[in-house]
Amino acid sequence: MTRNRILIGLCALVLLVGFTAVASAGQGVDHHAEQIIFSGTGFGTFNDTPSPFGFWIWCEDEDANNPYAEECNGAIYFYALGITKGVTGDVEEISEGVYQMTVFSRKGGSVSCQLTNELNDEGELNQGPSNTVDVTCLTPGGGGQSTNAVVNVTGPEE
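The structure corresponding to this sequence follows.
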């Protein structure tokens, strides 16, 4: 009986040490990346038609260690044109704190746009729905601006 307890104890100790070693080895690896979200409404002229527009787009930067690295997904609409499309694309930090999303419609090919945030006078993003995002589109042709956008950047900074 004592011999069985010793063997069970040794097996438990070996398993514990093995699990601890595996857990410790994975802790040093950084699997996190910045996530960038643009969400807002604005006004512009697209296909020579004045129109309100809106967007909600989520992106993950190139440092992500998963299939969504440097990809964007979301939606954009142009009210007066009757266009609402799901979009995909990529994101790039073009200068410190300034992100540019290049997106296009997944189906139908009727949207191809770039969205770029601006920083405030202190060179930072505002909290809440008070950031400026400039929108320039090849399709529908034109551009506009949102001054009530939420620009949220989460995750580790480099």
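Residues 4-29 have pLDDT under 50 and may be disordered.
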